[in-house]
Amino acid sequence: MAEFTMELNDEQKEVRDWLHGFAADVIRPAAAEWDEREETPWPVIQEAAKVGIYSLDFYAQQYFDPTGLGIPMAMEELFWGDAGIALSIVGTGLAAVGVLANGTEEQIGTWIPQMYGDVNDVKVAAFCSSEPDAGSDVASMRTRAVYDEAKDEWVINGTKTWATNGGIANVHVVVAVVDPELGSKGHASFIVPPNTPGLSQGQKFKKHGIRASHTAEVILDNVRVPGSCLLGGKEKLDERLARARERAKSGGERVKNAAMATFEASRPAVGAMAVGTARAAYEVALDYAKTREQFGRPIIDNQGVAFQLADMRTQIDAARLLVWRASWMAINGKPFTAAEGSMSKLFASETAKKVTAQAIQILGGNGYTREYPVERMHRDAAIYTIFEGTSEIQRLVIARTLSGMQIR
Ligand SMILES: Cc1cc2nc3c(=O)[nH]c(=O)nc-3n(C[C@H](O)[C@H](O)[C@H](O)COP(=O)(O)OP(=O)(O)OC[C@H]3O[C@@H](n4cnc5c(N)ncnc54)[C@H](O)[C@@H]3O)c2cc1C
Fold this sequence. Notes:
The chain is an alpha+beta fold. The chain has helices at residues 10-37, 42-51, 56-63, 70-81, 83-102, 105-116, 234-249, 258-261, 267-291, 303-331, 340-367, 374-381, 391-403, and strands spanning 117-118, 121-122, 125-128, 144-148, 153-164, 171-177, 187-192, 199-204, 215-226, 293-294, 297-298. The chain contains 13 helices and eleven strands. The strands form four sheets. It has a four-stranded antiparallel sheet, with no helix packed on it. The longest helix has 29 residues, at 303-331. It is globular, with a radius of gyration of 22 Å. The two termini are 36 Å apart. 49% of the residues are buried. Its cofactor is FAD.
C-alpha cells in the first residue's frame, strides 16, 4: 500500500506540468468560443489525442497510479483550463471506467479502443444511467433489458437522459433493469456497439454551463445487442442475481440505492474537477485584485478584498486535501467508513460554486461580463453540486454512513 503523501513525485510533477501546458495553451484559449458555440470541441479533442492526453493509455496510467493522485491531479489541471472542454476530453474515460471496472478482458480489449477511435478519427463514449424519473433515485430506473435466449441477445427498451456524449458517442454504456424485483441490485450494464439500430439521440439540452460538453437524451427502442455485450458476462450476472434474491428472501441486507453507493469511488474525481475550476477563478481574481486600482491603491490593499482571497485559497486547499485523501483511500482499498468519497465531492463542489461567485464580485462589473472568464467558470461550477450525486445526496450518504440509520 502506498503511503499517503501530499507531495507529487517527480514523474507526477512532470505529467502535471505537461497537462498544465496543454490546458493553458490549447484549452483555455478555446474556452470562450466553444462555450458560445455550445458544441463538442472536436478539434481540441483531436489535439488532445495527438499529444496522448485523449487515450486509454493515459487515463489508465493515472487511474492505476498507486498513490491515487494521478486522476485528481489530471482532472484539476484539465478543468483548470476549461470545464466544458475538459469534460468533452474526459467524458469518454468515465464511460471507459465502467467497462474497466465490470467488463471481462475481452470486453475491455474490444470496446475501449472503439470508444476513443484513433488520432485521425477520434470518437467519444457515453455512460447512460439517469432517466427522466430516475435521477437521484436510481432504483426507480425503468429501462428494461430482456434476454432472448434463442438468439443469445438482449433487447433493451427505455429512455435515458442527461447523457454526456449521448447520441454522438460511438459506444454507449447503458444501465438497465434485468430483474425489477431487486431494485438497484437488479441492474446490469450493457455495451451498445456503434450504429446499433434502435438507439437514437433525443433532445439535446441547452445548458447554463459546461456548454462545450454535449448532453442529451438517448432513446432505446428495441435495441438488440449480442449476449457478449452484457458487461461481466451472463454467468456472473446470474450468480449476482441469485445472491441478491437469497438476501432479499431472508430479509437481510436492505436493497440500497445505487446512486448512493456505486459512484462513491468515482466521486473524488468530480471533486478534483471542481478544485480545478475554483483554482482557475481564484487565480484570475488574485491577479485582478493586485492590478485594479480604486481610491488610489490596488483593491487587494483592502482587507475586505484580501480576506475574501484568503478564504478562497484556504477552501480550495482544504478541498484538494479531502479529494487526495479519498483518492488515496480508494486506490488502496481502504473502506470509506465516513463516506470520505462523498465528503470530498460535497466540499469541493460547494467550494467551486462559492469561490467562482466571489471571483465575480472581486472583478466587479468586469466579472459580470463575458470579456472575463469568471462568469463562465461560475456557470460551469454549478454542475459539480448536481452530477455524480447532488450535494443533498452526498449529505445523505455521509449522514447514513456516520449514523448507520436510514435518514431521509
Ligand atoms: C450536464 C449534466 C451531465 C450529466 N451527465 C450524466 C451522464 O453522463 N450519465 C448519467 O447517467 N447521468 C448524467 N447526469 C445526470 C445527473 O447525474 C443527475 O442530474 C443527478 O443525479 C440528479 O438527478 P435529477 O437531475 O433527476 O435531480 P432529482 O433527483 O430530481 O433532484 C432534484 C432535487 O431534489 C433533491 N433531492 C432528491 N432526492 C432527495 C433526497 N432523498 N433528499 C434530499 N434531497 C433530495 C436533489 O438534491 C435536487 O436538489 C448529468 C446531468 C447533467 C446536468
